Amino acid sequence: MGEQRRDGRGTRESRDGTPGAAEPHPLPEEARAWEALVATARRTVTDGLVVGTSGNVSVRVGDTVLVTPSGVPYDRLTPDDITGVDLTGRQVLGTLVPTSELPMHLAVYRHTDARAVVHTHAVHATAVSTLVTELPSVHYMSGALGGPVRVAPYATYGTEELAENTLRALADRSGCLLQNHGTLAYGTTLDQAFDRTAQLEWMCRLWLTASSIPGRNPTLLTEAQVAEAGERLRGYGQRT
Question: Burial of 128 by CB count in 10 Å (0-12 exposed, 13-18 middle, 19+ buried)?
């Protein structure tokens, strides 16, 4: 699947929309963003958030969305494998077929302020997605994602239905669980999207661990407590 290729690299429109002015090579900022995207995708494997070629990563540069290609192991990706589409899904960079989850990524970019999206099949988060409709608020880091984390109802991968379910779960949130599937988180940078994904997996693991003690139920935070933590987290870290 990952070896499938599209024709069209030589038919890309110019930046001003003039047809026929081919731009077969990425702009410098796209090349840099691709390098960072590949590093992030490899990190999802190293940190155990995905296995093999499951999951996908994207980053927006202007009106171009760079995405991991379908079925290609991340350790094999090179600068020549850059894969990009516009916001309608039309391929404008590269020849490898984009991820099958492209509709979900594009929906997030069209309806939020996302500049980067990370989707994984993290094991603890996926397990939680099969048990509840919302991740119980066992930790204040829920506030970093905008509040209690919702679970998007199941739909077949790569479909518009899944994209729509995901958007509803993301309302006023920057991360969600996908029922019987995995996670999705977005941010203003690849690092932020990845960190939110990792925090979501950690919270799911925490809840599963705490709720597994016989005869005990985890203490949960109220929505007000999570919201207060979220406000404080906005000012967390160094000012630049």
Answer: buried
Q: What is the mean pLDDT of the chain?
A: 90
pLDDT of residue 21: 35
pLDDT at position 156: 98
Cα–Cα distances in angstroms (integers) from residue 7 to residues 94, 153, 158, in the given order: 9, 35, 22
- Is 231 marked active-site? no
- Given 29, 35, 101, 134, which residue is catalytic? 101
Mean pLDDT for 58-65 is: 98
Bridge partners of residue 58, in order along the sequence: 67, 117
